[in-house]
Specification:
The chain is mainly alpha-helical and 194 residues long. The protein has 2 domains: 88 residues; 76 residues, Arc Repressor Mutant, subunit A, CATH 1.10.10.10. Helices cover 66% and strands 0% of the residues. The chain contains 8 helices and no strands. The longest helix is centred in the N-terminal third of the chain and has 25 residues. The chain starts with a helix and ends in a 25-residue tail after the last helix.
Length: 194
């Protein structure tokens, strides 16, 4: 077994195994079914080609277990109502941002980069080094060949200019209008003369 997969199971599966077993007890008919579901979950995780693509391990583990239980239910002819009700407990909220939130964040980031691009050159270099690259004041001064006081002054200037640009443009200005907004329709005219 690959040590990377073993490490993934140790870090991301084992800490949640007790909680998973508790939830599986509510939907499985016997302790052996719980054990089988846990073992099948591990097996399916081992079969994943690239676990680095799993960004939210806990929901992934619980969703895998839920799919296994659903497969078992589909195979069985009779399913208790209680099992179906408890099946919802295996659902763990996905903490990944929604696609619209990702798009919004990208638009917002593009807008901020546009504001930074409008700063004077030295101010832009200092601001980028400090805020985008996370450099300390000393690192920024050393890298750009400036004194600490100049870096501090340029940062203050950058913050002031950014605030002024935001106040002038407004935060809502960064959002593109919805399609069709602002389009005025031509006035209706009649062919009939008064």
């Amino acid at each position: 077994m690959d040590t990377e997969v073993t490490d993934w199971l140790t870090i991301h599966f084992l800490p949640h195994e007790a909680e998973l077993r508790t939830m599986l007890r509510r939907v499985c008919n016997s302790p052996s079914e719980v054990d089988d579901a846990v073992q099948e979950t591990c097996y399916r995780i081992l079969a994943v080609a690239d676990l680095a693509l799993v960004h939210n391990p806990k929901p992934f583990v619980f969703r895998t277990a839920k799919n296994i239980v659903l497969d078992r239910i589909r195979r069985d002819a009779v399913v208790s109502i209680e099992t179906m009700a408890n099946l919802e407990e295996l659902e763990i909220a996905d903490t990944a941002p929604s696609p619209d939130r990702v798009v919004f964040a990208r638009e917002e980031l593009k807008w901020v980069f546009g504001l930074i691009a409008r700063l004077p050159d030295r101010c832009k270099s200092v601001f980028s080094a400090r805020r985008l690259h996370g450099m300390s004041q000393n690192e920024t001064a050393r890298t750009l060949g400036l004194t600490d006081s100049v870096v501090e002054h340029e940062m203050m200037k950058g913050m002031r200019l950014m605030s002024e640009m935001i106040a002038t443009q407004g935060i809502e200005a960064r959002r593109s209008p919805r399609p069709g907004a602002g389009i005025q329709r031509a006035a209706k005219t009649s062919n009939v003369k008064d």
